[in-house]
């Protein structure tokens, strides 16, 4: 007769099998959702446009062709980028940026295809434009919904991303499990094999004991049929790791080496191979050489255009400053730029003082040192416009972490961990922190730490599109004008 334990085990096994079977369909289901979302967006854009412009829903076949083509390109692009794997849907980080990138590639590819096929006039340009604009938020919402659903399902055990067999010494295995909690990313630990510690147990023949432990572990692993074996060992214990790898190489499983604690500090450590040399890259420069060049070209062109267009405004502000209070029109102050290289920043003078020493008192709300015209300029960020000259000179970028006075840099570098990392890119006239309302006085360490966290996020997530979004929000978003002093 079957016992209660047997029933519980059978139920658990059945649940695991159902969860395990679901993961094989994740790629197909997510591709189908993407295709359906794109098909729906194109159809809605076409119907809405034709109803508005002509009073009818348009040609059904043309709409169907257009929707099918764009959906197919979108899914194919995701396939090429290996997006339809369950591992890509277990975290929300970077999902919207990835979807936006693929959506742009899709529309460019579509335009290229219809141009080469000489069927440009077959599809309404207005519908194509409406589809692209509507797709930007809707594709992101669809992707976000799918990711949240799969992530939640993996955490609750409805979907298994990986069936894992753990092996290592007990303290190392437990350290790995407690640090990473693998069940939160859909891992199911089907079995654990502990290796005996030769020193603590005073084993006479450590090699023979290790061989015996591994033989037992391999037999259990073969029976359990996991997807992967994770070896939880300090990387310095090379001999034991080699023995584990050799033992499990004969099984049809993926073999992983659990990460050292140092890797927990970094979001994207990466194996890099250069010739015969392979290394674990913990960080990389914030921008690649190509990205630096592209950002620089955009900075020079855009800053020059803005400078020419705003020249009458700049002259008017200069005249108002001279009329409002005695002193120079421009205020120059030392700031740190890329790689902590000092430069002098240009600003319209907004205060009666022009401090640039080792001790600088920050401007505060209702500061009596701020002039009448200065208060208006600071409120609407107009005092920053002369920094277009710093951008053209290559000392700054249009977008980046805002530079602080050297005296404040030195102070906060002592108080805030990794503060100086914000100098890994050029400082900007505007930045991610500023468009999120983090402007003005930093009278507490917490305020500055929060601002630095936003700067670090910008560095880690930089893209050309993010820069454009920040520039747009600098002008259009009310939050960009908050907390000015």
Structure description:
The chain is α/β, with parallel strands linked by helices. It folds into 3 domains: 4-155, no CATH class; 162-281, 3-Layer(aba) Sandwich (Rossmann fold), CATH 3.40.50; 289-481, no CATH class. It has helices spanning 4-54, 60-80, 95-116, 125-155, 170-180, 198-201, 206-224, 238-248, 289-309, 311-324, 372-379, 388-392, 406-415, 432-435, 445-460, 464-476, and strands at 162-168, 187-194, 228-232, 254-257, 270-274, 277-281, 330-336, 342-348, 397-399, 428-430. Helix 5 links the parallel strand 1 (162-168) and strand 2. The protein starts with a helix and ends in a 9-residue tail after the last helix.
Task: Give a topology summary.
Blueprint: H1 4-54, H2 60-80, H3 95-116, H4 125-155, E1 162-168, H5 170-180, E2 187-194, H6 198-201, H7 206-224, E3 228-232, H8 238-248, E4 254-257, E5 270-274, E6 277-281, H9 289-309, H10 311-324, E7 330-336, E8 342-348, H11 372-379, H12 388-392, E9 397-399, H13 406-415, E10 428-430, H14 432-435, H15 445-460, H16 464-476
Parallel strand pairs: 1-2, 1-3, 3-4, 9-10
Antiparallel strand pairs: 5-6, 7-8
Helix pairs in contact: 1-2, 1-4, 2-3, 3-4, 7-8
Task: Tell me briefly what this model is.
With 485 residues, the protein is of the alpha/beta class.
Query: What is the general shape?
Result: flat
Regions with pLDDT < 50 over 5+ consecutive residues? 1-15
Helix content percent band: 40-55%
Strand order of the largest sheet: 2-1-3-4
How many E strands? 10
**SSE string, helices as H and strands as E:** HHHHEHEHHEHEEEHHEEHHEHEHHH
Q: End-to-end distance, in Å?
A: 79 Å
Radius of gyration: 30 Å
Tell me the number of structural domains.
3
Largest sheet: 4 strands, parallel
By secondary-structure content and strand pairing, the structural class works out as alpha/beta
Chain-averaged pLDDT: 83
| Proportion of residues in β-strands | 5-15%
Q: How large is the count of helical segments?
A: 16
Quaternary assembly: single chain
């Amino acid at each position: 007769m079957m016992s209660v334990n047997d029933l519980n085990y059978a139920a658990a096994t059945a649940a695991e099998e159902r969860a395990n079977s679901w993961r094989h369909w994740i790629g197909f289901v997510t591709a189908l959702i993407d295709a359906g979302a794109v098909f729906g967006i194109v159809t809605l854009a076409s119907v809405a446009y034709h109803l508005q412009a002509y009073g009818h829903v348009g040609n059904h076949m043309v709409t169907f062709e257009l929707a099918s083509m764009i959906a197919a390109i979108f899914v194919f692009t995701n396939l090429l980028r290996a997006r339809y794997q369950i591992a890509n849907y277990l975290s929300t980080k970077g999902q919207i940026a990835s979807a936006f990138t693929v959506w742009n590639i899709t529309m460019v590819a579509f335009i290229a295809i219809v141009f080469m096929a000489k069927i440009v006039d077959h599809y309404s340009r207005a519908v194509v434009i409406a589809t692209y604009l509507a797709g930007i938020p809707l594709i992101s919402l669809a992707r976000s919904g799918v990711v949240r659903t799969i992530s939640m399902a993996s955490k609750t055990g409805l979907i298994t991303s990986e069936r894992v067999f753990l092996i290592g010494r007990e303290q190392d295995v437990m350290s790995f499990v407690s640090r990473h909690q693998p069940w939160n990313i859909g891992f199911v630990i089907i079995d654990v094999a502990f290796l005996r510690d030769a020193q603590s147990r005073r084993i006479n023949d450590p090699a023979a004991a290790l061989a015996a432990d591994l033989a037992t572990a391999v037999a259990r692993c073969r029976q359990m049929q996991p997807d992967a074996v994770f070896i939880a060992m300090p990387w310095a214990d090379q001999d034991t790791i080699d023995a584990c790898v050799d033992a499990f190489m004969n099984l049809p499983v993926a073999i992983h080496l659990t990460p050292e604690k140092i890797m927990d500090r970094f979001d994207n450590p990466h194996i890099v191979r250069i010739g015969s040399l392979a290394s674990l890259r913990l960080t990389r420069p914030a921008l690649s050489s190509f990205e630096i060049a592209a950002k620089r070209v955009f900075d020079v062109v855009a800053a020059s255009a803005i400078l020419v267009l705003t020249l009458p405004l700049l002259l008017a502000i200069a005249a108002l400053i001279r009329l409002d209070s005695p002193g120079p029109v421009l205020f120059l102050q030392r700031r740190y730029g890329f790689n902590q290289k000092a430069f002098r920043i240009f600003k319209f003078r907004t205060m009666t003082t022009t401090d640039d020493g080792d001790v600088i008192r920050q401007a505060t709300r209702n500061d009596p040192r701020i002039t009448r015209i200065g208060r208006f300029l600071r409120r609407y960020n107009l005092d920053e416009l002369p920094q277009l000259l710093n951008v053209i000179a290559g000392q700054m970028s249009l977008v980046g972490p805002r530079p602080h006075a050297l005296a404040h840099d030195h102070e906060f570098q002592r108080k805030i961990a990794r503060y100086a990392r914000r100098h890994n890119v050029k400082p900007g006239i505007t930045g991610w922190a500023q468009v999120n309302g983090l402007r003005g006085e930093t009278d507490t360490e917490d305020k500055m730490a929060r601002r630095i966290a936003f700067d670090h996020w910008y560095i880690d997530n930089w893209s050309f599109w993010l820069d454009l979004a920040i520039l747009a929000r600098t002008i259009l978003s009310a939050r960009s004008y908050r907390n000015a002093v």
